[in-house]
Amino acid sequence: MKRSLLTYFAWISLLLIAFSCRSPKIGLTAVMPGRTDQISDVASPLKMTYTARVIYKDSELSGRVLLKEDSPGNFRVAFYNELGMTFLDGTLGNKKLAIHNIIPALDNKIFLRKFEKSMKAIL
Asked: Can you tell me the distance from the alpha carbon of 106 to that of 89, in angstroms, rounded to the nearest whole number?
């Protein structure tokens, strides 16, 4: 029994799709080790700064991630480079990451899910 050319084409295209799907790699390292809380009469918000390196589909973005506590359980997230260009700006609550501003290169469901998991792992 002869296999048709269409069968081979289907198998090859499935293999190409499977190998072309890549997960983004997000690496975070603390700029200031530990949490820096100032003890004073006025309640100061918690701020954490991390250096971030994102590798996705042969592209690499590096910069800083700033986490600032707005209210208990809600954090403001900003991913920006050293020159001040903002890549991602949003709010991380108990349930989900709400995006306010994002560059088109990072506007991807897979990246956002992985970034949200990384931010929740830090907190």
From this structure: 11
Strands 59-71 and 25-30: unpaired
Residue 19 lies in a domain: no
- Domain encompassing residue 54: 24-122
Please tell me the distance from the alpha carbon of residue 108 to that of residue 72, in angstroms, as a whole number. Answer: 28
Q: Is residue 101 part of a domain?
A: yes
Q: Is 16 contained in some domain? A: no
110 vs 24: CA distance, rounded Å: 8
Give the C-alpha separation, 73 to 120, whole Å. 11
- pLDDT tens digits, one per residue of 87-112: 999 998 877 889 999 988 888 888 88
Total domains in the chain come to 1
* Residue 86: strand pairing partners: 80
Model pTM above 0.70: no
